[in-house]
């Protein structure tokens, strides 16, 4: 007998998200269906106000849908309380943002250790895992550097290492190259592709740049709160 296929990592069904009421109501998401499986690299695009960032926030458990179902690895997220959603974020998700979000007076190693502190991991293991994560992104020898001593591309690598240190099932990247020049942007995307193809890391990335989205193997386009296109890219 053939074993049943594992559930999708992300399964959004009829997701809506509205803000405000009456004439002031804004429907940011309008019946979104989206499935993402373990190991995919998905780029999400769309004009400003299309709903792509709202969808990312719901996937990352930073926001809750007004209606619809969200299953993460087969578990219904809507039934989780605030603390349980925080645990899901901490244990299973890694986040990378446009602005790096590094502590300026803290070394690269200490920045990468931060999520491990919240996990209650002992200091020696924290340091070892942080060093390993920095090595994965090509920053050996930079462990003691502060953000001001690193280029923008290096700072984003620290942010990616921080996301990886917690051993997540998926990385959510919100405009990860938005603050970088073209050369550094392509360096970061090559790193992301390597994490996806070599290590099987699931990547979901919001971007407004066509050349960055081209690195993904799948492109989902939002318009007016709906998915209007979902296709493989051949990348």
UniProtKB/TrEMBL annotation:
Domain ABC transporter as annotated: residue spans: 10-235
Where does the sequence pass through the membrane? none
This protein's record includes keyword Transport: yes
What CDD domains would the database entry show? Answer: ABC_MJ0796_LolCDE_FtsE
- Classify the source by domain of life: Bacteria
Do you know which InterPro entries this protein is assigned to?
AAA+_ATPase (IPR003593), ABC_transporter-like_ATP-bd (IPR003439), ABC_transporter-like_CS (IPR017871), ABC_transpr_LolD-like (IPR015854), MacB-like_ATP-bd (IPR017911), P-loop_NTPase (IPR027417)
Keywords annotated in UniProt: ATP-binding, Nucleotide-binding, Transport
A single GO molecular function term of this UniProt record: ATP binding
This protein is called ABC transporter ATP-binding protein
User: In which organism is this protein found?
Assistant: Ruixingdingia sedimenti
């Amino acid at each position: 007998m053939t074993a049943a296929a594992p559930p999708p990592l992300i399964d959004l069904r009829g997701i809506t998200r509205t803000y405000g009421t009456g004439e002031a109501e804004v429907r940011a998401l309008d019946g979104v269906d989206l499935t993402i499986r373990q190991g995919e690299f998905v780029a999400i695009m769309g004009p400003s106000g299309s709903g792509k960032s709202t969808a990312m926030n719901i996937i990352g458990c930073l926001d809750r849908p007004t209606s619809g179902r969200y299953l993460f690895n087969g578990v219904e997220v809507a039934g989780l309380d605030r603390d349980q959603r925080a645990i899901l974020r901490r244990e299973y998700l890694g986040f990378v943002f446009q602005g790096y979000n590094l502590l300026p007076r803290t070394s690269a190693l200490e920045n990468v250790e931060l999520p491990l502190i919240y996990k209650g991991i002992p200091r020696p293991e924290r340091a070892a895992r942080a060093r390993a994560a920095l090595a994965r992104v090509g920053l050996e020898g930079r462990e003691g550097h502060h953000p001001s001593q690193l280029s923008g591309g290096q700072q984003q690598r620290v942010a990616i290492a921080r996301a990886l240190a917690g051993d997540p099932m998926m990385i959510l990247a919100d405009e990860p190259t938005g603050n970088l020049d073209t050369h550094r942007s392509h360096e970061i995307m090559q790193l992301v592709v390597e994490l996806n193809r070599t290590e099987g890391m699931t990547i979901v990335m919001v971007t407004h740049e066509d050349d960055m989205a081209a690195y993904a193997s799948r492109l989902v386009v939002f318009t007016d709160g709906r998915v209007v296109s979902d296709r493989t890219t051949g990348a």
